[in-house]
Amino acid sequence: MKKIVALTGSLSNPSRTRTLVETMAHRLALQWPASVHVIDIAELAGELGHSVSFQNIPASVTRAHQLLAQADVLVLASPVYKGSYSGLFKHFLDLLDPNALRGKVTLLAATGGSDRHALVLEHQLRPLASFFETVTVPSGVYARDSEFVNYQLQLPEGVHTLARIDVAVTQAISLLLYSELEALAA
Ligand SMILES: Cc1cc2nc3c(=O)[nH]c(=O)nc-3n(C[C@H](O)[C@H](O)[C@H](O)COP(=O)(O)O)c2cc1C
Description:
six-stranded parallel beta sheet, alpha/beta, binds flavin mononucleotide
Protein backbone atom coordinates (compact mmCIF):
# COMPACT_ATOMS: atom_id res chain seq x y z
CA MET A 1 0.00 0.00 0.00
CA LYS A 2 1.14 3.55 -0.72
CA LYS A 3 2.39 5.60 2.24
CA ILE A 4 1.71 9.21 3.18
CA VAL A 5 4.21 10.34 5.83
CA ALA A 6 3.82 13.66 7.60
CA LEU A 7 6.60 15.32 9.60
CA THR A 8 5.43 17.89 12.13
CA GLY A 9 7.91 20.19 13.86
CA SER A 10 5.98 21.31 16.93
CA LEU A 11 7.44 20.73 20.39
CA SER A 12 3.95 20.80 21.94
CA ASN A 13 1.47 18.04 22.61
CA PRO A 14 -1.37 18.59 21.78
CA SER A 15 -0.42 20.54 18.68
CA ARG A 16 -2.28 22.56 16.06
CA THR A 17 0.37 21.67 13.49
CA ARG A 18 -0.22 17.98 14.15
CA THR A 19 -3.96 18.48 13.65
CA LEU A 20 -3.27 20.32 10.40
CA VAL A 21 -0.99 17.62 8.95
CA GLU A 22 -3.38 14.85 9.98
CA THR A 23 -6.23 16.68 8.27
CA MET A 24 -4.17 17.12 5.10
CA ALA A 25 -2.93 13.53 5.03
CA HIS A 26 -6.39 12.04 5.64
CA ARG A 27 -8.02 14.26 3.02
CA LEU A 28 -5.39 13.13 0.52
CA ALA A 29 -5.88 9.48 1.51
CA LEU A 30 -9.62 9.78 0.82
CA GLN A 31 -8.87 10.40 -2.85
CA TRP A 32 -5.54 8.60 -3.20
CA PRO A 33 -5.74 5.46 -1.04
CA ALA A 34 -2.70 5.18 1.23
CA SER A 35 -1.71 4.55 4.82
CA VAL A 36 -1.05 7.66 6.91
CA HIS A 37 1.90 7.99 9.31
CA VAL A 38 2.88 11.00 11.41
CA ILE A 39 6.39 11.69 12.68
CA ASP A 40 6.01 14.10 15.57
CA ILE A 41 9.15 15.97 16.60
CA ALA A 42 7.62 16.47 20.09
CA GLU A 43 7.83 12.68 20.57
CA LEU A 44 11.47 12.50 19.41
CA ALA A 45 12.66 15.74 21.01
CA GLY A 46 14.54 14.29 24.03
CA GLU A 47 16.71 11.87 22.06
CA LEU A 48 16.95 14.10 18.99
CA GLY A 49 18.26 17.01 21.06
CA HIS A 50 21.17 14.89 22.28
CA SER A 51 22.14 13.65 18.81
CA VAL A 52 24.98 15.72 17.45
CA SER A 53 26.69 13.31 15.08
CA PHE A 54 25.79 10.97 12.22
CA GLN A 55 27.65 8.22 14.12
CA ASN A 56 25.38 8.39 17.13
CA ILE A 57 21.79 8.64 15.90
CA PRO A 58 19.30 7.01 18.32
CA ALA A 59 17.10 4.15 17.08
CA SER A 60 13.89 6.22 17.39
CA VAL A 61 15.30 8.88 15.05
CA THR A 62 16.68 6.27 12.61
CA ARG A 63 13.24 4.60 12.47
CA ALA A 64 11.62 7.96 11.73
CA HIS A 65 14.23 8.68 9.02
CA GLN A 66 13.48 5.28 7.45
CA LEU A 67 9.74 5.92 7.51
CA LEU A 68 10.26 9.25 5.77
CA ALA A 69 12.50 7.62 3.16
CA GLN A 70 9.83 4.95 2.46
CA ALA A 71 7.07 7.52 1.87
CA ASP A 72 5.33 7.91 -1.46
CA VAL A 73 4.06 11.35 -0.44
CA LEU A 74 5.32 13.72 2.25
CA VAL A 75 3.67 16.44 4.29
CA LEU A 76 6.34 18.71 5.80
CA ALA A 77 4.99 21.09 8.45
CA SER A 78 6.14 23.22 11.35
CA PRO A 79 4.77 25.89 13.62
CA VAL A 80 6.48 29.24 13.07
CA TYR A 81 9.10 29.76 15.77
CA LYS A 82 10.80 33.16 15.58
CA GLY A 83 9.93 33.57 11.92
CA SER A 84 11.06 30.10 10.79
CA TYR A 85 10.51 26.37 11.30
CA SER A 86 11.38 24.94 14.71
CA GLY A 87 15.04 24.23 15.45
CA LEU A 88 14.49 20.52 16.13
CA PHE A 89 12.52 20.11 12.88
CA LYS A 90 15.62 21.35 11.05
CA HIS A 91 17.93 19.28 13.26
CA PHE A 92 15.95 16.11 12.41
CA LEU A 93 16.39 16.88 8.70
CA ASP A 94 20.05 17.87 9.18
CA LEU A 95 20.69 14.28 10.31
CA LEU A 96 18.90 12.78 7.28
CA ASP A 97 20.67 11.44 4.17
CA PRO A 98 20.42 14.27 1.59
CA ASN A 99 19.27 11.76 -1.08
CA ALA A 100 16.49 10.19 1.02
CA LEU A 101 13.60 12.34 -0.22
CA ARG A 102 14.56 12.90 -3.86
CA GLY A 103 11.56 13.09 -6.22
CA LYS A 104 8.87 12.68 -3.56
CA VAL A 105 5.67 14.67 -4.00
CA THR A 106 5.57 16.99 -0.96
CA LEU A 107 2.87 19.14 0.59
CA LEU A 108 3.99 22.06 2.77
CA ALA A 109 2.18 23.44 5.81
CA ALA A 110 2.74 25.78 8.75
CA THR A 111 0.88 27.26 11.71
CA GLY A 112 1.46 30.58 13.41
CA GLY A 113 0.11 33.02 15.94
CA SER A 114 -0.83 35.50 13.20
CA ASP A 115 -0.55 35.92 9.43
CA ARG A 116 2.64 37.96 9.77
CA HIS A 117 4.92 35.02 9.07
CA ALA A 118 2.77 33.08 6.60
CA LEU A 119 5.53 33.34 3.98
CA VAL A 120 7.57 30.94 6.09
CA LEU A 121 6.10 28.44 3.64
CA GLU A 122 7.82 30.06 0.68
CA HIS A 123 10.97 31.49 2.28
CA GLN A 124 11.90 28.67 4.67
CA LEU A 125 10.03 25.41 4.07
CA ARG A 126 10.05 25.35 0.27
CA PRO A 127 13.82 25.99 -0.08
CA LEU A 128 14.48 23.27 2.51
CA ALA A 129 12.22 20.83 0.61
CA SER A 130 14.04 21.84 -2.60
CA PHE A 131 17.41 21.08 -1.01
CA PHE A 132 16.17 17.48 -0.73
CA GLU A 133 15.02 17.62 -4.39
CA THR A 134 11.41 16.91 -3.50
CA VAL A 135 8.64 17.88 -5.91
CA THR A 136 6.70 20.45 -3.92
CA VAL A 137 2.98 21.08 -4.40
CA PRO A 138 2.51 24.72 -5.51
CA SER A 139 -0.04 25.73 -2.84
CA GLY A 140 1.22 25.64 0.75
CA VAL A 141 -1.24 25.57 3.67
CA TYR A 142 -0.96 28.09 6.52
CA ALA A 143 -3.30 28.22 9.54
CA ARG A 144 -3.50 30.80 12.36
CA ASP A 145 -4.07 29.90 16.02
CA SER A 146 -7.45 31.69 15.93
CA GLU A 147 -8.73 29.01 13.49
CA PHE A 148 -8.38 26.31 16.17
CA VAL A 149 -10.43 25.58 19.28
CA ASN A 150 -9.03 22.88 21.58
CA TYR A 151 -6.43 22.20 18.89
CA GLN A 152 -9.09 21.31 16.30
CA LEU A 153 -9.73 23.36 13.15
CA GLN A 154 -13.08 25.14 13.57
CA LEU A 155 -15.68 26.36 11.13
CA PRO A 156 -16.26 29.02 10.03
CA GLU A 157 -12.80 30.32 11.11
CA GLY A 158 -10.90 27.57 9.30
CA VAL A 159 -12.98 27.52 6.12
CA HIS A 160 -10.27 29.11 3.95
CA THR A 161 -7.67 26.71 5.31
CA LEU A 162 -9.87 23.71 4.52
CA ALA A 163 -10.42 25.05 1.00
CA ARG A 164 -6.69 25.57 0.66
CA ILE A 165 -6.04 22.00 1.81
CA ASP A 166 -8.35 20.73 -0.93
CA VAL A 167 -6.48 22.79 -3.54
CA ALA A 168 -3.15 21.40 -2.32
CA VAL A 169 -4.53 17.84 -2.30
CA THR A 170 -5.80 18.21 -5.88
CA GLN A 171 -2.40 19.51 -6.95
CA ALA A 172 -0.66 16.63 -5.16
CA ILE A 173 -2.86 14.08 -6.94
CA SER A 174 -2.05 15.63 -10.34
CA LEU A 175 1.67 15.35 -9.57
CA LEU A 176 1.25 11.76 -8.33
CA LEU A 177 -0.68 10.71 -11.44
CA TYR A 178 1.94 12.35 -13.64
CA SER A 179 4.77 10.51 -11.90
CA GLU A 180 2.83 7.21 -12.13
CA LEU A 181 2.40 7.77 -15.90
CA GLU A 182 6.09 8.60 -16.25
CA ALA A 183 6.99 5.39 -14.42
CA LEU A 184 4.73 3.37 -16.75
CA ALA A 185 6.30 4.96 -19.83
CA ALA A 186 9.85 4.31 -18.62
C1 LIG B 1 9.09 29.56 20.66
C2 LIG B 1 7.92 30.07 19.86
C3 LIG B 1 8.10 31.01 18.88
C4 LIG B 1 7.04 31.48 18.11
N1 LIG B 1 7.28 32.39 17.13
C5 LIG B 1 6.27 32.78 16.32
C6 LIG B 1 6.50 33.67 15.24
O1 LIG B 1 7.62 34.13 15.00
N2 LIG B 1 5.45 34.01 14.44
C7 LIG B 1 4.19 33.52 14.65
O2 LIG B 1 3.26 33.85 13.89
N3 LIG B 1 3.92 32.67 15.67
C8 LIG B 1 4.93 32.29 16.51
N4 LIG B 1 4.69 31.41 17.54
C9 LIG B 1 3.33 30.87 17.70
C10 LIG B 1 3.19 29.46 17.11
O3 LIG B 1 3.70 29.40 15.79
C11 LIG B 1 1.71 29.08 17.05
O4 LIG B 1 1.11 29.17 18.32
C12 LIG B 1 1.54 27.68 16.45
O5 LIG B 1 0.19 27.48 16.08
C13 LIG B 1 1.92 26.61 17.45
O6 LIG B 1 1.68 25.36 16.86
P1 LIG B 1 1.50 24.03 17.75
O7 LIG B 1 0.17 24.13 18.44
O8 LIG B 1 1.56 22.94 16.74
O9 LIG B 1 2.65 23.99 18.70
C14 LIG B 1 5.73 30.98 18.34
C15 LIG B 1 5.54 30.02 19.36
C16 LIG B 1 6.61 29.57 20.11
C17 LIG B 1 6.37 28.51 21.18
